[in-house]
Amino acid sequence: MITARAAATFEPVGRSVATARGFVRDTLQGWGLTDLIEDAVVLTSELVTNAVVHAGTSADVRCLRDAEGVRVEVIDRHPERELPMAEVSRGRLDLSSEGGRGLLLCAALASRWGVDYTTTDKCVWFRLDQQALPVGTRSAGPALPAEALPVSETRVRVAVVQVDRADTITVWNDDARELFGYTGEQVIGKPLADLAAWPQTPGTGTGIAEALALSRWEGSYGLRDSEGRTIPVYACHLRVRDAHGEPSTVCLIVRDQERAILQSPSRLPVHGTAPDALDRPGGDPLDALIGSPPPDDLDGLLQRTVERARDMLDGDAAFLLLATDDETELEVRATTGLPSARQRFARVPVETGSGRYGSARMPSVHEDLATAPGAVPLLSGTGMHAVVTVPLKVEGRLTGSLGVASETPGRYSNEEALRLQFAADRIALAVESARLTELERLRRGSLAFLVEASELLAGTLDHNQTLALMAQMTVPTLATWCAVYTIPDAGSEPVLSYVLHEDEERIDGIKALLERVDPPDPDIALGARPWTAPADAAHNTALRSSLRSLALGTLPSPSSPGTSLSTASAVGGETVVLPLVARNRVIGLLALGKPTDERFRQDILELAEDLSRRAALALDNARLYSERTAISQSLQRSLLPPELPEIDGVDVEVIYRAAGEGNEVGGDFYDVFPIREGAYGFAIGDVCGTGPLAAAVTGLARHALRLLAREGLGGPAVLERLNAAILEEGPRARFLTLLYGELWPQSSGGALLKMVCAGHPLPLRLTPDGMVSAAASPQPLLGVMDDLELYEQSTMLNPGDVLLCVTDGVTERREGTRMLGDDGLADVLSSCTGLTAGAVAARVLRAVERFASDAPSDDMAILTLRIPE
């Protein structure tokens, strides 16, 4: 039965795909189906693309929710369009082709899918079923001796935090204040999410808001204390409602190392098995090792596994490594009893040899690591001596390694190895199943991440904005901090262009550190690789700072510039460098880093490599666009005249507007220039068309006018020679309307004008009494006929007179069937008596812009000359 529905229609334009993704994401988020969002968004993106881009029709998207999940339908208006159904069903679709890709994704991700036809449309639908989430079980553990109990601080503090329907804090007890340093007055009324440092790994299906909305939730995350430090905590959330039906969530929180206080106890062995069944081959170690987390909770399963393995052999530490896909390396995924998490996600080669993990494929016992240095690199420097390791295998394939270590030499023998191997054999299948489930979830999350990233990168051609987007997409999703280096030219050194850290206060310190470190080698053959220079430099600088402070007997100022201890901690973990390669050239480098004691997971590095390829192409496109725009604008500016000359006794003002985005020069042009002592030339013209082709003729006309006028030729001779030059351009020639004149200021006041109006809108003269009249007569335009007979007309501008010259972009301004025209321009000019030349030009421009609601589609030039009274 359908319990909720939502629908929207999207036009057949490219931006509809992004809008449809947002519609589906928001709809499922509102319904609480957060675990289905990523798959639904990816499938919707492909199917809507098929409809609005390939089929070229509008698309209806319908979301139908029921008790088991959601059905999404994408309907287009192209029912006869053939679908590659047979190829999809046989798995023979060409993956390089655009067609059928959406159906392949449906087949891979959806619970069910299909295509329905009617006489007017086609409906491609898919269904995603929601996985039932267990809410936990109730159980009790056996009595244990005191030495087997978990260790905690003398005073155990359990923070009690309650949040309301809006996830804002309403209760904050004294233990919460002691743990995190905030008083109740400081946090009550604020969202708990403001304090939570929730994991940001792609594919993580649950966030703080979703966890607080579940009926019951248990797990670990981080909370920031009053000093900005992230404290790992373990929490148990319970959703309740008061007598009025108002829901809220009660959170019990302890430090992560005290998780045993809140952590759900392990299930008891079935059928009355004794508590020591783990020690006997006849017991069921699977239950004892898995504990309470569900099998698909990989991190919880692995952590519980190492804890139970350590307890089983009464060890001091335990660790579990998972094999990479090619089984050549093992990745540390869970430890207990070892220093913090400094080895998490560290990778160890499997093959035997010095410094390699030689005991991965077979059980191994080392009585004392001091006699076999490098046998287990993970335990180097930890104080562990005896260690037993066993492989995790599924169907004969190495999937991981489980080890238990003790500080006491000679602690373990082959008997303990057999016991641990028996338990590992039972747990291996559950671990592999959970690993594959996590891998699939991460891959789906990565796919959704790359879809969004590609759309964002394709949405801008601004170089600086592309750099910022690259950094913001990697932090904190892929790394704690990142730096982008650009290489301006082939063979030049990388330049640090952008730095970002998830804590903005650390950006300046990291940037200062990286500026003192030699940039990574941009050799394309090196590929993605570790980079130790930032961590080494930070460690050395912080060490020198600490030694200097101890020598002086003072503590360093936290606000001191340069690299501080916090900066050293921020960049002290693993750092990797990925080349940004576009068009077979390294155009930059992307450095990703983790703080001290943290490493990258292999799947995160693979996702980063995918992102770097997309980002490199986007960055190179932005660079090319910026370079070509700069060249275009530089060439266009060269076509504009220099600053207007100052003419004694005459005010001159020009306003110029080129049509088209990014154009500074079009088909209209103007010029005012000195000819000889006491004489000035002025021109305003309009080349047929707009844009670069018209601008080329503009440059020819403006420069030719100056040269010919300064040769002493009169106005008609100047225009006749310009007409011949335009006709010599052949097919590139364009006709040209031009008003050319000579201005002769008079010592007694006023100015003599000699003008030739070749097919151009007539110049208008405004007298102080408000009369407007044409100041010249029309003559043939240029660039059409070989033999032109032009003549010069003279007029006198008296004090207070204004001469207005415009191009047809002013007079032909339209709104529907109305046009401003010569009469409308004359009406505007008649209201300008007493105004300066600049004010007259501005009023004319304002009248043109207000005449119609849309932006002007033609170039405009306005030239005004006024004789002051």
From TrEMBL:
Transmembrane segments: none annotated. SMART domains: GAF (SM00065), PAS (SM00091), PP2C_SIG (SM00331). It comes from the Bacteria. Residues 160-190 form the PAS domain. Gene3D superfamilies: 3.30.450.40, Histidine kinase-like ATPase, C-terminal domain, PAS domain, PPM-type phosphatase domain. Keywords: Hydrolase. CDD domains: HATPase_RsbW-like, PAS. PANTHER family: STAGE II SPORULATION PROTEIN E, STAGE II SPORULATION PROTEIN E-RELATED. This is SpoIIE family protein phosphatase. It comes from Streptomyces litchfieldiae.
